[in-house]
Amino acid sequence: MRILTIACSLAALMAASPLSAQTLNVATAGDQNMVDYVKDYLGPMFEKSHPGVKVVSVGTGAGDSGSQKIYEKLDAQKSSATTDFDVVVIHQKAAGTMVKEGLLAKYTDKVDTAKLVSSESAKNALGADVSGFVIPMFQSQTALAYNADLLKSPPNSFAELRDWAKKNPKQFGYNGIKGGMSGVAFVAGWVYAFGGDADRLIKGPYDPAVKASWDGALADLKEFNKSVVITPGNAGTLDMLNRGEIAIGPVWVDMFYSWQADGKLPPNMKLKLASPGMPGQPMYYAVPEKTANRKLAEEFIALATSPQVQADGIVKKFNWYPGIDAKNLEGKLDQAAWNKLFTDITPSDLAKNAKSFPIAPYFNDILEGYEKKVSN
Amino acid sequence: MLSQRQLALILVAPGLLLVAALFLYPLGFSLISAFTKPDGSLTLDWFAKAYELYSTDIVFTVVIVLASCGLTALAAIVIAGTLTLGENPWIVGTLKALYRWPLFIPFIVAAQCMRTFLAKNGLMNNTFVSLGLMEPLSAVSYLDWRGIIATFVWKQTPFVALLLAGALASIDRATLEAGRNLGASRVRVLVELALPQVMPTLLVALVLSFVTMLSVLSVPMMVAGSQPTMLTVDMAFRINSYGDYATANALGVITYLISAGAAILYLKRGLSKEAAP
Question: Keywords in UniProt for this one (chain B) (predicted)?
């Protein structure tokens, strides 16, 4: 009987909670660290300035698949009065789709910090116009991590890397395209380097005939794959670097620095952004069109994109590049924390070699071309 | 007043409904989506795409699962045979205490353990090196198809051995004793006298293992790189990266067909009286 009473009151509580309107549900695609960031850092800060509000952080998983889950949920709730999520943190590919299908609210004119954003990616997500719908949470970048003891002069370009890998079999490792985005970024970089017109892939317009011109590059990649190691995932690449099993491999810059700070990577590891460059991508804060707490959601994003939080949370805690223009962080951050981000990869490297992912249709063509011509 | 028959139907109904709602409905749904275009017309396009992109992986999956089944059978026979016919009480006792452990460890944990165990500079190679059995330079990583097979065999052997040991224990000892008395070695008694009597059980256990291994996602994902990989990983990738349920379902149908071969074996055995797993 008592169990029944408890069960009933629990059910009643659960049914009642959406009505209280004081719970802010934040759904983040991305690794566990993103969920923890909202739960342990942003949430408590927001709750302090908004008494009575509770921030709930939900994670939907790493990579584009995490964003895909958020998309599917919002899509499924299209016809209901409100959605479960109030703030979503999503990748570029999903952001474009969600804006196109009217699942997101145009909110940035109500948030002051939107004026501090200067990056192109706040307007353009893989070819889709998202201006007004998103504010970047951070910008992340892929690069080649290498063991400086084993590799005195790291390759400066993809062509050098290709030759080096041939001479040093099984010393380069990456995770293919099914094991995480750093592998996808490497493949995109490969197509930029050997497939011809990289600029067109990034800026569009889309022409389905272009993919035929990648045949040579993909055949080369198949050949290249014979002398490299396919690692299990982003973390798998770092694991193998750490154990000294490979000498070089593509990784996310933020993950690299976090592992190094935790002592999971030896200090002799360094980063290199080889030309013509590798892609990076931002993650976006967005508000679903049908949120019940629109005002709260906007205030939450305003806090999350404020210079102080960007400095302390994004740069210092996670080694991400800030989502708002970096010049707004001046004075908020000590020099050491700032310099750390730019030791191996200098601002000029970034300016020259930090690329975007290709626009969505080319992106899918590259992935499918890889599956068809390289891995099968 | 309800008849006996109606009462039985009512009792079975919840279970049937559950099977229908949670298994038959999704199964039907995925079958339909694998064979239709978005506009509803019939097509085999998704199968063509699955073949074009994943033919290597289809072969890889079948080879991995069959090889794992073969090795599992071998290991299980050795373990179950030792347990039944072993004469050294110390060895039999230790084996008895140890062999069931992997049964209680989930696939995902096993995969994570193997990741550190089988790596090039992992626990296994490091042990060999420190024992002086191997040069550090000759160490190789087993984190590829060999890693997947090792994990599967490690995880499924206790299950098969458990069923097999039970069956072996229940056969008539007199025939085995007779074989021993006439001078046959223990290996010969096991292979020629005991195993033929428990073959149905062994087959059923292997069929169940086959279907289990076919459906595991975590092991190929965590232990090996993605080229080539097993169909479960490809299905997850189709859905997660493209939201492409049609091709994923086509791959699902291909998996059904592979496991149907095993299921037919199972049903044949299950219907004949001698098999009682």
Answer: Membrane, Transmembrane, Transmembrane helix, Transport
